[in-house]
Structures are given as structure tokens and as C-alpha cells.
Design brief:
This protein is an all-alpha fold. It has one helix at about 15-145. The protein is rod-shaped and about 190 Å long. Component of the nexin-dynein regulatory complex (N-DRC). Keywords: Cell projection, Cilium, Coiled coil, Cytoplasm, Cytoskeleton, Flagellum.
Length: about 160
């Protein structure tokens, strides 16, 4: 605000009444102008202060919202990282278990093949033994039949 203009009082010269009246009107006009200018500056100051206050409040509110949004984004980012880490750990466990399952499958396949091979060879040995026994038994029965005078081929 500009300072108010001060009017100096000077001793009055003897002039005519008309000049005094005109000078008095001029002084009043200058004083009125100064008061009006001061009033205008006061209003402008109050208006600017109100506008700045509302702008500060709006910016503070926006800043708090942005801080809250930033915190939410950081929390979301942390949660996403945790989720990705858990998924990676799960994937690693799944791969490990799949590998173990494949190994077990291969081991069981080997065991089954070995067992079947062993069973086949045991059956072959048993078959040979049965064939030998049956051959001996047939031979004995043939001999008995021939002792009784029967032909084994007729029976």
C-alpha cells in the first residue's frame, strides 16, 4: 500500500475567496482520491489474500492426496513384488517336484522292467523244470503201459 499523501499546511496568503474555495476543493479532491486509492488497494489486497488462501488450501489438499496416492502406489508395488516372488518360489517348487516325479517314474520303470525280466527268467527255468519232469513222467507211464502190453500211441 502506498503511504498516504500528507498535505502541508502553509500559512494562508491573502487571496480572494474564490481562489480559496477552489484550492479547498482541490485539497478535498486530492484527499478523496487518496482515500479511494487506499480503499481500492485494500480491496485488492483482501481479494488477493483470499485467493491465495484458497489456492494454498487447494494445493495442500492436492499435496496430501498425492502423498496418499504415492503411498498406495508404493504399497501396491511392494505387494506385487511379494506376489511375484511367491509365484517364482511356487514355480521353482513345481519344477523341482516335477523333476523328482520324473526321476521316480524312471526308477519305477527300471524296477518294473527288472522284476518282469527276473519273473520271465524264473518262469523259463520253471518251465524247463516242468518240461523235464513231464518228459520223465511220460516216459515212466509209457514204460508202464508197455509192461501191461498196451501201446501208448493208441491211448
Amino acid at each position: 500500500m502506498p503511504p498516504k499523501k500528507k498535505t502541508k499546511k502553509t500559512p494562508k496568503k491573502k487571496t480572494t475567496g474564490k481562489e480559496n474555495d477552489l484550492e479547498e476543493k482541490y485539497r478535498c479532491s486530492v484527499l478523496d482520491i487518496a482515500v479511494l486509492q487506499d480503499h481500492i488497494l485494500s480491496r485488492q489486497y483482501k481479494t488477493m489474500q483470499t485467493e491465495l488462501t484458497s489456492k494454498v488450501k487447494r494445493l495442500e489438499k492436492e499435496a496430501s492426496q498425492l502423498k496418499e496416492e504415492l503411498l498406495c502406489q508404493e504399497e501396491l508395488s511392494k505387494e506385487q513384488q511379494k506376489r511375484e516372488q511367491v509365484e517364482q518360489e511356487k514355480d521353482a517348487i513345481i519344477v523341482d517336484l516335477q523333476h523328482k516325479l520324473d526321476n521316480l517314474e524312471t526308477d519305477y520303470e527300471k524296477i518294473l522292467i527288472e522284476t518282469l525280466d527276473s519273473l520271465t527268467s524264473q518262469l523259463s527255468v520253471a518251465r524247463r523244470g516242468w518240461e523235464d519232469k513231464s518228459t520223465v513222467l511220460h516216459q515212466n507211464y509209457k514204460e508202464l503201459l508197455t509192461e501191461f502190453g498196451l501201446n501208448a500211441l493208441d491211448i
